[in-house]
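User: Can you predict the 3D structure for this chain?
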Amino acid sequence: MKLPHTRGVIRDIAIAGGFIAIGILAPGSPIENGFEAHLGGISVGLGLGWLIKCFIDLQGSSHAKQS
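Assistant: Here is the predicted structure, written as C-alpha cells:
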C-alpha cells in the first residue's frame, strides 16, 4: 500500500510518532520499573494504536474509491 501525501495522513503519522517518542524517550521508560514506566507504556500503546487507526482509515478510503 502506498501512503498518500495528504495533510491528514502526515498529521496522523506525526501524532503517532510523537506518542511513541514520548513513551520511549521519557524518563522512566518502559524498560525500567515504577509508575513512570506505566505512563511510558501507555504512551507507546497510544502511538501504536493511532498508527493502526491511520492505516485502517487509509484501507477504508482506498476500498471506497475502488467501489
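The longest helix spans residues 35-66. The two ends are 17 Å apart (CA to CA).
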